[in-house]
Amino acid sequence: MNRFVSMKSARADNGDAEWWRGAAIYQIYPRSFCDSNADGIGDLPGITQKLDHVASLGVDGIWISPFFTSPMKDFGYDVADYRDVDPIFGTLADFDALIARAHELGLKVLIDQVYAHTSDEHAWFEESRSSRDNPKADWYVWADAKPDGSPPSNWQSVFGGPAWTWDARRGQYYMHNFLSSQPQVNGHNPDVQQALLDVAKFWLDRGVDGFRIDALNFLMHDPQLRDNPPAPDNGKPRTRPFDYQLKVHNQSHKDIPAFIERIRALCDRYDAVFTVAEVGGDDAAREMKLFTQGDRRLNSAYGFNFLYADQLTPQLVCDALGEWPADGPEDGPDAGGAGWPSWAFENHDAPRAISRWCGPEHHDAFARMKAALLCSLRGNIIIYQGEELGLNQVEIPFEMLHDPEAIANWPQTLSRDGARTPMPWITQCENAGFGHAAPWLPVGDENAAKAVDRQGNDPASLLNHTRAMLELRARHPALRSGRVAACRCEGDVLVLDREADGQRVRFVANLSPETVTLPEGTVCGDVMAAINGVDGDTLAPYGAIFLQS
């Protein structure tokens, strides 16, 4: 209980209009967090029941993945009604109760907004496809066939195959960047933009504190429908037709920032609202900065530097941080237009980092170093549910797959289901305490052994280590919001210096499974925390240390 009080106090110390700058956000995937009604699927009341655990970590807020009405062909990212809760997750009253409990605990609440596409079962699309002259005829991207009947352009969908599907009702093709059941909205249409802003206002009025905006760079397309050029071979395996093109015409249109400014203007009418965009693709770094430029666009952008990286290296960390330099001596409201990043090592779309980045014999030590590293980064940090427990990627056999991308591209695409497995709460309990019915995906035996109850009672557990790292970050301005004074690589060793308010904190980490000796003078200052074994200038495998000077 004392730890929980201290965590809440640490959050309160940073409470102002820019609570989000340097915040730690905990991502919740609703289907897999906690099942309160024994149907095998997590739900909003289940989230509310477990918010004490989230608050005990010392995070500033939660991000909840989609829970809106949906046929679930892409598990909530195919929205059929933006303003309601899907019955499998509960009701609007359940959402209101979740908001109230989160705010009681001092947690901000962010929700997903999926603007680039809807479900083909959305009322907007059903009207749009009914004729070429109805009021919503131009709310989606429709185009005539070429003279030979082929699609209007060569654009390919992310999930495989052409980005166009024929619709006999209109005698035209409609565009979809993902599944054919996820038609692309026409983001250029002012009426569509207003409808999306009205959706945001609906949730702001219900008390949400911000939005994570999904696939924002897919919102607008080239109206001329020009073909994408071929992509040069970069040496990486190509498992989808999408990989063979430079995506210069089907996404990333120059008018997207103007709509972003409308989103920001709406959010600024509410207190302390935080907006973060998901931006992926080959041009992500430029677009992330474009979408967060100045004080009229989004607060932050969420990149993929770490999410799909095959290996964690000091150079990867320094390169990522180097993309977001500070303009002033310290970061803050007056830091200028450099932008503010958000970082995650894991999420619902990417394989668990612990399974990607080290061998099983080093999982425990690596997970501890990884938690410390995440808490050392300049920007907001996002912790994916179960990351605080060190959950592994679970192998899901083909016959149990739900992920449409993995099914379509089997076996070349690693299933996202392996990172979406249920949260283990009680080790010696049916379904690891997730719920009383068989869950929609297996928990995984290794993950069940890492349940919250077991780790919570162990002072030396990864769970309690994560709490300690988050508290360290929250209590030191240099770590939470300070600038990067230096970032350098010494072989497998990362040396990162952060500065704010006259405080300088150095983070040194061995990112290898071998013991390393540091160059003389690397370890200097007062020790704030040591991880996995530090002896003078020697770091054990995945050893790390925080120093203050």
Automatic annotation (TrEMBL):
Residues 27-420 form the Glycosyl hydrolase family 13 catalytic domain. One of its GO terms (molecular function) is alpha-amylase activity. The keyword Oxidoreductase does not apply. One of its GO terms (biological process) is oligosaccharide catabolic process. Coiled coil: none annotated. It comes from the Bacteria. This is Oligo-1,6-glucosidase. It comes from Paraurantiacibacter namhicola.
